Amino acid sequence: MICADLKVVRLILYLSWRDRLLCANSDMQQSRARLFKEYKEVQREKVADPDIQLVCDDTNIFKWTALIKGPSETPYEGGVFQLAFAVPEPYPLQPPQVRFLTKIFHPNVHFKTGEICLDILKNAWSPAWTLQSVCRAIIALMAHPEADSPLNCDSGNLLRSGDVRGFNSMARMYTRLAAMPKKG
Amino acid sequence: MQNQNDTVKDDAELAASISAMKGEEWGCCSVEEPSFQEDEAAKVPYVGDKEPLSSLSAEYQAGSPILLEKIKILDSQYVAIRRTRGDGNCFFRSFMFSYLEHVLESQDGAEVDRIKVNVEKCRKTLQNLGYTDFTFEDFFALFLEQLDDILQGSEESISYDELVNRSRDQSVSDYIVMFFRFVTAGEIRTRAEFFEPFITGLSNTTVDQFCKTSVEPMGEESDHIHITALSDALGVAIRVVYLDRSSCGDTGGVTVNHHDFVPVGTNDEKKEEEASAAPFITLLYRPGHYDILYPKVLDDVEK
């Protein structure tokens, strides 16, 4: 707890320092105030949502990373996946940009860039979402792939042709290769 | 990073969001491509200046005679039109300006007190629905702040010009639009049974899904469901005048239809009286878009 408090103090100091530098930009003030509230909420929710570990960059509140656990009974089970968040200045009117840093074989995630195809990150975004609830939505997407709007065509085609076993084994292999800590 | 569509120079917000993202190596699809509609919309301010209705007829010079006939009728009833940007938020934006302008001009402190009570009810509604406070409180605070600023006598009270400026400033204007979207979604969700038939008739989705995809996201267009919900939630009547090609002439002549959205629950006598008068917000609807209309003399419009 002490550690978290120190971090809050550091953030406050940092924010007031930045306010003085950039006080003209109200978009940025609004988004920063909101992100700060999310930061406090994340500290509170840590215990409630053990599948998500959301961390703010030490020096930039517009940059976050998250570690999410692959949902059980999916080929991602047992894996830990890292997400990168870049929050735009007009946040929360505009969505954060999120991508997988950990390689993942999933129809709605670009295999090379990690870009995610999810409506709430595009046209269905609203400020009612938070970084934390976006993580939950991404976990839900991992468990329920939308094969009809694929960013990863190979993965989408396997599912669309009904080859669930093929899809599962590919997804499982990449989970083992990229999302699990190496043993021994 | 720059996408194919290079005609976005005017769109300052978009440019800002792109520049904010620079330095990041995102996939090409991560930067949202502006649609044609957004390009066009960016050339019009969020809220325009008052214009005479002749500017409306000029738009339809070569158009349908029915429309020109209707505009002539409008011209006899209304002095001016104020256009809003066609960015999908035009109903909420028109409502925002029209309402705040009314309060500024009337200095109706009782109305401000009344709507504040309703705003607090909306806040409770969202809390009961399980919305996290911090996701909507900034939007509520900004709207309440405008109400206080608009009433003269306080230190921060603002002029008419300042109201126009704020309505054109994204960080105020979009926040208030979003406030209305929260209020609208809250009203629809708590009265799901009432709204469900309208929603399934319109889009064949659930009430929750409708709110998530068609009410809460910015830029999603409004129709009678949104208008009814907002009017009910805030207790503000709205008149919508329809300018379309329908010729509704049972009697042979062309008439202009309007519909008054009168909030439910106006029980006590005083409110009923108010409800029977013409709403102080009048919007002009043309298929796909709302602008603000200014009646000539308030009392004459009813006749």
TrEMBL record, chain A:
GO terms for molecular function: ATP binding; ubiquitin conjugating enzyme activity. The gene is LOC108848399. Pfam families: UQ_con. InterPro entries: Ub_conjugating_enzyme, UBC, UBQ-conjugating_AS, UBQ-conjugating_enzyme/RWD. Its EC number is 2.3.2.23. Belongs to the ubiquitin-conjugating enzyme family. Keywords: ATP-binding, Nucleotide-binding, Peroxisome biogenesis, Transferase, Ubl conjugation pathway. GO terms for biological process: peroxisome organization. The active site is at C117. It comes from the Eukaryota. It comes from Raphanus sativus (Radish). SUPFAM superfamilies: UBC-like. This is E2 ubiquitin-conjugating enzyme. It is an enzyme of class 2 (transferase). Residues 30-180 form the UBC core domain.
From TrEMBL, chain B:
One of its GO terms (cellular component) is nucleus. GO terms for biological process: protein K48-linked deubiquitination; proteolysis. InterPro entries: OTU_dom (IPR003323), Otubain (IPR016615), Papain-like_cys_pep_sf (IPR038765), Peptidase_C65_otubain (IPR019400), Peptidase_C65_otubain_sub1 (IPR042468), Peptidase_C65_otubain_sub2 (IPR042467). This is Ubiquitin thioesterase. It catalyses: Thiol-dependent hydrolysis of ester, thioester, amide, peptide and isopeptide bonds formed by the C-terminal Gly of ubiquitin (a 76-residue protein attached to proteins as an intracellular targeting signal). Coiled coil: none annotated. The gene is LOC108819126. Keywords: Hydrolase, Protease, Thiol protease, Ubl conjugation pathway.
